Amino acid sequence: MNQLIASLNSPIYTGLVNAKYILLFAALTLSACSSHQVKTTAYVQLEQETSEIPEAQLLDVGVVLLEPNLEQLDEDEDALVFAEVRKAESHFMALHLSEAIQASSAWGAVRVIPNNESMIDVVLEGKILHSEGESLKLEINVSDISGRHWYNKEYQAVASRYAYKRETSREADPFQTIYNQIANDLLNFRRQYSGQQLSQLRTIGELRFAQNFSPESFSGFLQQDKKGIYQISRLPADADPMLQRVRSIRDRDHLFVDTLQDYYGAFVEEIDGPYKDWRKQTYREVIALRNIKRQSRNETIAGIVAVLGGIAAQTSGNRATRASGAVAMGAGGYLLKEGFGKRAEAKLQEETLRELGDSLEASIAPQVIELEDRTVTLSGTVEQQYQQWRKILRELYQVEVGQVEVGNGAS
Amino acid sequence: MTGQFKTITIATLLSLSLAGCKQQTTQSQPNTPPPSSSSPSSSSSSNSPSSSSSSNNPSSSSSPSSPSSSSSPSSPSSSSSSNSPSNPSTPSSSNSPSSSGSPSSSNSSNPSGSSAPSGALPSGSDNSTADSGEQPSEPTPDSREPGSEPGFDGEADSGPGESTLYDSYDPNSGTDSAPAGANDGDEAGEAATGGELTMDDGPLTQGSAHDRQASLEAELAGSMGEYDDMILREREYVLGRGTAKGADEQLEEDTPAGRDGEGEGGGNINPYGLPGRDGDGDGDEQGGEPSDNRNGGSPGIPGKGELPPPADIPDGSDDDVVARQIREAALKEKDPKLREKLWQEYRKYKNQE
Hints:
The structure holds two protein chains of two kinds. By secondary structure, chain A is α/β, with parallel strands linked by helices. Chain A has nine helices and seven strands; from the N terminus they run ααβααββββαααββαα.
């Protein structure tokens, strides 16, 4: 009995106990670090305008195709960004965003537009900062047709694990929350405007469009202040022939934008299945990868600390300390090995994600290319047509002004 | 003797007086144009009015200056009222049908706009000449009215633009703003002078401007029509492609499960997968449409947000893929113009079949 007690008080035993404490502490730390996982996400409901808005105050909204932010590829070659997937996402997200905005019942026509050159009352531009199955981060920039900048904001959402369950994922997008948030912010900002201001915005929109097509006829109707914001200086007669022509052209422009909606809608419909599958798979893989990376990092750090501690313990004059140091070095070596093993596992996981991305990219690339081709072709054709109309309007203006001048000269 | 002397003196006086009368008539004849100098002296007194009326034609060539000045104050009102409406009418009529008919309407508006004044102007000039009370002008309205109308017509054809030239041409008439058509009527005779050239120059440029405007309008309308067709083709393509894809998917879905019934046939064919795609082909939205049309995935029935087809459109039960695509597109189209074109296309296609 006395021997047993003596052995318990021996330095070796004490060292073993210390090493156990170190390992236990390290294990607890690691286990605590690896327990992060979002199981539920707060779902933001879409706000809807309940009061009736007069037609003259219904602003049209143009959602510009989101910027794919492919610069990320240049900055980090290892980034899990896939060019074709990002391009597809720029359409996919813009369309979902436009649907959410339209559903808030506070706007006129909400359309996805290829660029911000369209003369639409409110233009919403965005950039995809980060996108995979688990999280989405967007930067949104809103301005109106008068040139006034509304706001710039970053949005981030994390998808719930349940978002990808088949029963719950049929209707809503896993990141519907982010679209709803953007739509709500847009609606709340619009509420700051009075009815008169909203009507003026619409008028400015029409006049800017008219200026774009017939600058000679409509040059004096708008003026820009020091900040470059358009203001109405006077109005054309409602029955002004040139205004009527421009309105007629604007109807055609809306038709063009509607056709683009058909393109985008059909495209999104085509990629919807593969893209959602990809998201679902990446959701799991991204979480797994993150856990593996975290474990790898923690184990590596713990191993290094243990090894260093063990080495330090070897300098001690106490045998028990040296013994415990030796144990710690052994444990540290084991942890380091585990950490390196996890790192290799993470590499494999990344490869899996890359393969998933490549696979999706390969499957949707033809659609993306075809969409781009058709969009570019149609836009080019339409732009040519617009140039022709501009020329005709210019000639008409000259003919009409010529007549007036003759009349004024005679009188 | 004294009696004889008296009678002689009376006879002498009578003869002298008669001779004096003869001299007067002969003296009056030189005032008239030379031909009248040979006219018989006896009837000269009675003929003089008639000869003056017949000789008014040449004499009126000098008199127009007075009618023109007298009628110009009156005619301005009529001409200005006639021209001013005609000018606005041109753009307004050309605007209203902005897309297609503008050129023709704008062309037709000019003649119509100016022909109305031509009807009004004569009456106005009649009144003015009557008011002026000048003797030579009194008979002329009756005789001039028919004769002057062609003159108005001729000017009316040249359009309202001539008014401006008249302004520049006849600044001394004293008619400033209204002048335009006012002078139109009056200067009919005067036009024989050098003014005619400027009159002709003006209407020609104005006319060509109108022609140019009309042709530009037509070009714009035509190009818009082409644009509409192009857009329509594009939409048909996209919709047709989506529909075909949807039909293929539907076929794939239906094949293993079998067509067991009710509803999931054609109602599901929706290129965009919009709400209502899944399983709402059943019944409720179909209204009173006969449900037997729906076998085999025929898309004959309008769904949510779809407008019913025109009465002459068949139920579509025998549609092939292309016809079904066109039909789908037409049912979904909101723009009535495009919708009608799609239905036209559908009819054409069905007739070809």
